[in-house]
Amino acid sequence: MVHAHSFLRWIVLILALLTIIKSYSAMSSKRSFTPGDRKMPLFFMISMDIQLLLGLVLYFTGAWGVKNIQNQGMGNVMKDSISRFFAIEHTIGMLLAVIFAHVAYSATKKTGDDTAKFKRIFIFSLLSLLAIMLSIPWPFREAGRPLFPGM
Q1: How far apart are the first and last CA of the chain?
Q2: What angle do CA 108, 109, 114 make, to 5 degrees?
């Protein structure tokens, strides 16, 4: 399950970047919003939702989430930077990223100015990507994981 969660991060990151690039390009050129412009934010949001489900399974069944808090107690988890990262920081950061992805997609359903839609998609997708980048356990972090675990 951890390998699937780690692999899917690359798909999420690619879809986030594509959503940001496409919305910025459309916003800059001031072109009209078409039904096809909903697809990239939708795919990004769906990938985030799948990632959230995998993460929740890991949080409630894996060693670094609820079980770690039950075994060590919340005070000890908060004192250990690696335990705190997975139990609190990673979880909250990624939940914020999912919320931002949903807000970005919700802009595609609004009526009104097309440039404003693209701007909202751009801003909230960028915020989502920022939260993701700050919350991923990159190899250079103390709580780091390999870029491609199991390979």
Answers
A1: 14
A2: 55
CA 66, CA 131: separation in Å to the nearest integer? 22
Is the distance from CB of 129 to CB of 17 less than 8 angstroms?
A: yes
Which tokens hold the place of 14?
A: 């690619």
Whole-number Å distance between alpha carbons of 44 and 12: 6
- Residue 65 CA: distances (Å) to CA of 48, 68, 73, 140: 19, 5, 11, 21
pLDDT in tens, 38-76: 999 999 999 999 999 999 999 999 998 999 999 999 999
User: What tokens appear for 37 in the block?
Assistant: 């412009």
Please say whether the beta carbons of 55 and 6 come within 8 A.
no
pLDDT tens string 7-16: 999 999 999 9
pLDDT band of 151, cuts 50, 70, 90:
low
Q: Is the dihedral of CA 87, 90, 105, 46 positive or negative?
A: negative
Q: Are 140 and 134 in contact (CB under 8 A)?
A: no
Query: How far is Cα 56 from Cα 39, in angstroms, rounded to an integer?
Result: 25
Give the whole-angstrom CA distance, residue 104 versus residue 100: 6
